[in-house]
# Entry
Amino acid sequence: MKIKRILIIFLVCMMLMSTIIFADSPPNIYNNLTPDTGLSGIGDAILGVIRGIAGTAAAVSIIVLGIKYTYSAPSEKAEVKKKMMPVVIGSVLLFGAMTIIDAISEVAVDLL
# Structure
């Protein structure tokens, strides 16, 4: 029964992760750059890579801690909660900062 639960959780995680990971070869990043969008295009590509790596790391760490929380004894659940809160707060701050950077980038491109 325990193996069946772990297998189901693993399959659900794999299905969720496979829809958010899209890759492109590095030379194709620079093909559509013009003098007007050169810097912003490179900046958007870098932010996209950072967002992808950070999102994957946050999702994996939350999933691992969630599985630990589910299968831990009641006395150990408090320790797992203490480890989970900084991860959740850090993820919210990271994605909030990325949203603010995107907004600033949009305004800067419109002004320039």
The chain has a mean pLDDT of 76. Helices lie at 2-18, 38-71, 74-111.
